[in-house]
Amino acid sequence: MTMRPEFWTTIPLANMTPEEWEALCDGCGKCCLNKLEDIDTEELIFTRVACRLFDDTSCRCANYAVRKQHVPECVVLTPINLDEIAYWMPPSCAYRLLHEGRPLPDWHPLVTGDPASTHKAGKSVLGLTVSEAAVALDDWEDYPLPLD
């Protein structure tokens, strides 16, 4: 099946085809980063500590199709669970933006037609991550990721 032209501007998230849904991902890699939540303020803090399946050369999951088998805590984002998970997504995430009724940024690959536009715009974590296998859980707070 082919994607409808500019589907993200006209089709509700729940009505997108699986191919359209997956195409919303800009490849920034930020959803694959471990996050910490401040108990007092409930502030979500993104770290540069990436999931053990994260491929830091592509900013994608190295085993996406079966990631839940290897990382049971991995969250599979769907239109059904987006309400409860949107806060957990980075502010620039297409799923979160569309869920909140906002447009895609001008650097998004669907807008530019360039699959590398996220990296070219400096909006990905390419070259910024460390593996969770290399950092003790107690030290994750020492690896904050500034978000724009």
Description:
The chain is α+β, with helices and mostly antiparallel strands. It has one domain (7-142). It has 7 helices and 5 strands. It has a 3-stranded mixed β-sheet, with no helix packed on it. Strand 3 and strand 4 (60-61) form a beta hairpin. The protein is globular and about 45 Å long.
Structure described in brief:
The chain is of the alpha+beta class and 148 residues long.
Keywords:
148 residues; alpha+beta; two-stranded antiparallel sheet; 7 helices; globular
The proportion of strand residues reads 5-15%
- Residues in helices, as a percent range: 10-25%
**Rough outline:** globular
User: Which structural class is indicated by helix and strand composition?
Assistant: alpha+beta
Runs with pLDDT <50, length 5+?
none
Secondary structure blueprint with pairings:
Blueprint: H1 7-10, H2 18-23, E1 33-37, E2 44-50, E3 54-55, E4 60-61, H3 67-70, H4 82-85, H5 94-99, H6 109-112, H7 117-120, E5 130-131
Parallel strand pairs: 2-5
Antiparallel strand pairs: 1-2, 3-4
